[in-house]
Structure formats: structure tokens, C-alpha cells
Design brief:
The protein has 495 residues and is of the alpha/beta class. It has 22 helices and 15 strands. It starts with a strand and ends with a helix.
Length: 495
């Protein structure tokens, strides 16, 4: 049975998966959601005998129903290949009584590789299927990791251009270095003098500019997105939750059907939403633990039912979570509103006009499977130190937030179910913060010398992704104000 995609705001016609991937964002500004959540059609036992690529196919075929088996398997094989430093693709490591799902073994050492390695292939296949003649312009805002992963995926891909906006002072030195050294004539990286929410808002405004869209169409261009607002990003993320569960089953760590809890460091809400979708497909997930840093807008929302971005924006040691407008939450709001687009649209309009909205008591009750909490900066550093001291296991700052919040959950509830903590980035991407937590002596040292120290201390080789940018020349040095983003895009496209 074919799955179609509707806009969360109800002002766009249903489209096929390939069309939703090409569009990225619906014409009415809404996000595409499947008209139904398909159930897993293989037993967990069967899935536990599959490798990552096979598991990915079994999950994605249920959502991307207008792709042929050959097309989808070709995309998967091209994505999950030797660019990952382990054949397992998404291994799990046991530490401190929990399982850490390591999603950082791809080319940019962050979890975004899991989806952005396949998105270019899904997009090019979608363009062929729909006989699209226009050149695809990927427009992306990043809080640190999406940018480089998208650049790595689309650089040099024929028929595409990619523009990435990032907060100039809101990413780690290595994150920035990875982006500004990116090669490829079809790439542009721009630092904005603002925060991630400014960048994300600017991208959405450009997407909804009908006049610009017509101008681009006349010039042979069409916008799409590599952010997690694109359903082609979200669907591949569901796969690693299914694979993680089945890995534990295969290892005899859990029994078939046994519930596990999942803790996810959360900013834009896409990663934990993928876990929610996996659960809705029949994966035995108990509690969805939503971990925030000091920008704890999601913690407050889950506790009170009020989403309020009217608060100070805090720059933390976990910059990919420094977000006050969690775009993917809209998909969940649409769901708990009973797929009521009008109700969702009213809430989103309230968010943009007043900076906040409040859900009904009935909608709040539908969130009972979520648990929210946050880790302050000192708790994040303490968790890195604790894991290294007790287990010899080194995590980055984002993973530490999830780990610290998971421990709070266990202390509050006594829930001893097996737990998977999503490890979203390599500690080598945030060497300054990680070494500060473990060693303390970072003054006068740059991030690359700290990477060497971390390697010696952890016994883990410095990843190729870090070595490659150590001495690479800076190729992108453009900066702008948030209000100038559309002008930058036009200049890049020659409009």
C-alpha cells in the first residue's frame, strides 16, 4: 500500500515520497508527514540477522513506496560503504550499564552522516523519477553538524548546488574548520552574525518567498533542503533505532519483544522524532528520553505543555543543541493533534507571532511516553569525566547531555530496563570541551593538538575527518547579517 505525504499545515496536496524529498518543505510552509505510519513487516528475529544495509532497506521500503527495490537498494549501497570507518556502520558500545549507539563513524564524524550520506542519492533518484529538468539548490541552516555532512554529501554532485548558513560564533572550531575548507564549485558556506534560530528562520523565509521561487524557476533552479525538515533525512534516521534494538537482540542482551528505553540529545527534535516513528512502527521502545542542554525549551514544554522560545539564548559546550525553535516538533504536534492541520497551523502561527503556544490537556496526555530533562554545563562536563574515570569510555558533550539526563531518569523512576543512549558525535569534534572535562589543562593549546592528546589518552586514533582539515586551506570566508541571506543566495546563483 503506497504511503503519501501531507503537509502539517494542510495547504498543500498530498505527494509521493520522491516528490516530498525534492520539495523539502511544503508550499504552505508545513513539513511533510506520512499519511500513515507503516508497521514493520519483518519479525525482530528476522531483522536481527541482517546487516545495516539490509535493515535500512526493510525500514525505508515501507516509507519510500514509489522507489523500486533496485532504486532504493542502489541508494543504500552507495551511502553506507567504505566512507564509514566500520563495516557495522552503527555499532553499540557498553559503558556504565547502558548501550551507546555510536552514530559518528561516517565521513564527518557526526550522526548527520547516517542520513546525509543517502539523501543526495535519494534526491537524484527522485529527480529522475519525476523527470525534473531543473538544477536542485540545497539550502541549509546548521547548528554545526548538518552543514558539513550535507556539504560532504552534495559536493560535486551533478545537477545540484548547496548553500550552508551557520552561526559564526556558535559552532566548535573543528566544526567550523570542516565547513570552511569544503571543496567543490557547487558549494557555498556562509557564517551569519546571529544564532542558529536566526539561520533557520532565514532559510524558511527564503523557501516561502514565492517571488524568488518564480525567479529561480525561470533560471532553471528549484530549492530543496538537507535539514531534517526534509522527509528524506528523517526516514533514514528511523533505521538505526531498529538496527540498535536488533543488535542487542542478536547479542543476547535482550529478549525478542523486550522493551528498551532510548535517550537522545535533542535540539531540532528530528533524531528523537525518528525514535518515535520507530516505536510507532512496532519497535519495543518504552520511554523516549528527551535530553536538553541549558537551552531547555523542550524540557519546559514536556513538563508544562507550553512551548515558549521567549528566553535568553545560551551558547553551550553542546552547540548542535543550542536551539530555541525545534522545527521537527511540528510533526509531533500534528500527530498528537489527531493529524489536525488547522489546529497545528494555529499553534505554529502563534509561535511565530508571539513566540509561544500551549497545547491542550488531551494533547499533553498523548506525550506520556516522553520524558524530558536537561543537563547544565557543569553536569555535562562531570558526565564526561565520570564515564572516562569509571569506564575508560570517552564521549562528546552532546552524548554526555543524554547520558546525564538518562541517569536522572533512572534515579527518578527506578526504571532498570535496557537503555540505548544515542551518541551523536565523536569526542574528536569537540576536543577542547572534552579535554577540559577530563584533563583540565587546555590553555594555550589549539584544537588539533588537543586532538592528539585525546588520542593518546583514549587509545583511539585521530579520525580521518579531523586529520583532513588540520592543514586544509580556508575556501569559504563569507559572512552576512541574517537579513542578507536571500541576497547571498541570489548572488551565488547569478540571479
Amino acid at each position: 500500500m503506497e504511503v503519501f505525504y501531507n503537509s502539517t499545515r494542510g495547504g498543500a496536496s498530498p505527494v509521493k515520497a520522491s516528490q516530498a524529498i525534492l520539495k523539502g518543505l511544503a508550499e504552505d510552509g508545513g513539513l511533510y508527514v506520512p499519511d500513515r505510519i507503516p508497521a514493520l513487516d519483518r519479525s525482530l528475529k528476522e531483522l536481527s540477522e541482517m546487516d545495516y544495509r539490509q535493515t535500512a532497506y526493510e525500514v525505508m521500503k515501507l516509507y519510500l513506496t514509489d522507489f523500486t527495490e533496485e532504486e532504493l537498494k542502489n541508494c543504500i549501497d552507495r551511502a553506507y560503504d567504505s566512507k564509514f570507518d566500520t563495516e557495522i556502520i552503527a555499532p553499540t558500545a557498553e559503558a556504565g550499564g547502558a548501550w551507546y549507539l555510536e552514530l559518528f563513524h561516517g565521513p564527518t564524524i557526526a550522526f548527520k552522516d547516517m542520513a546525509l550520506s543517502i539523501l543526495p542519492h535519494l534526491m537524484i533518484t527522485s529527480a529522475r523519477k519525476n523527470e525534473l529538468k531543473k538544477e536542485i539548490v540545497i539550502l541549509t541552516a546548521t547548528s554545526g553538524d548538518t552543514g558539513k555532512a550535507a556539504l560532504a554529501g552534495f559536493a560535486g554532485v551533478k545537477g545540484t548546488k548547496i548553500v550552508v548558513f551557520y552561526p559564526k560564533d556558535g559552532v566548535s572550531p573543528i566544526q567550523e574548520r570542516q565547513m570552511v575548507t569544503q571543496e567543490g564549485e557547487n558549494t557555498l558556506v556562509v557564517g551569519i552574525r546571529g544564532n542558529f534560530d536566526d539561520a533557520q528562520r532565514g532559510v524558511k523565509e527564503i523557501f516561502s518567498d514565492r517571488e524568488l521561487a518564480e525567479e529561480m524557476s525561470a533560471a532553471g533552479y528549484q530549492f530543496s533542503s538537507a535539514n531534517s525538515i526534509n522527509i528524506g533525512r528523517l526516514v533514514p534516521q528511523i533505521c538505526y533505532y531498529v538496527y540498535a534494538y536488533c543488535s542487542l537482540l542478536r547479542q543476547g542482551r535482550i529478549k525478542e519483544g523486550e522493551r528498551i528505553n532510548v535517550a537522545v540529545p535533542t535540539g531540532n527534535f528530528g533524531n528523537i522524532l525518528a525514535a518515535f516513528y520507530a516505536r510507532s512502527m512496532g519497535l519495543p521502545v518504552g520511554k523516549l528520553i528527551c535530553a536538553s542542554n541549558e537551552n531547555k525549551v523542550l524540557y519546559d514544554f514536556l513538563r508544562t505543555g507550553v512551548y515558549d522560545r521567549n528566553r535568553p539564548f545560551v551558547l553551550t559546550a553542546s552547540p548542535s543543541m543550542d536551539i530555541l525553535i525545534s522545527s521537527n516538533l511540528e510533526r509531533l504536534i500534528y500527530c498528537i493533534a489527531g493529524n489536525n492541520a488547522a489546529k497545528n497551523r494555529n499553534l505554529m502561527e502563534s509561535l511565530y507571532s508571539e513566540g509561544k503556544y500551549e497545547i491542550t490537556a488531551e494533547m499533553k496526555a498523548a506525550l506520556e511516553d516522553f520524558y524530558g530533562n536537561f543537563a547544565a554545563e557543569e553536569e555535562t562536563f562531570a558526565e564526561i569525566r565520570r564515564l572516562y574515570g569509571e569506564c575508560g569510555y570517552v564521549v562528546d558533550t552532546h552524548t554526555a547531555v543524554a547520558s546525564a539526563v538518562y541517569r536522572k531518569y533512572v534515579e527518578e523512576t527506578g526504571d532498570g530496563a535496557a537503555a540505548v543512549i544515542v551518541s551523536t558525535a565523536s569526542p574528536f569534534k569537540f576536543t577542547r570541551s572534552v579535554m577540559k572535562a577530563i584533563d583540565g589543562s587546555i590553555e594555550g593549546k589549539d584544537d588539533f593538538s588537543l586532538a592528539d592528546e585525546l588520542s593518546e589518552l583514549s587509545g583511539v586514533k585521530v579520525p580521518r575527518a579531523v586529520e583532513e582539515v588540520r592543514s586544509a586551506p580556508v575556501l569559504h570566508d563569507k559572512q552576512c547579517e541574517p537579513g542578507e541571506m536571500d541576497k547571498i543566495v541570489k548572488e551565488f546563483l547569478g540571479l
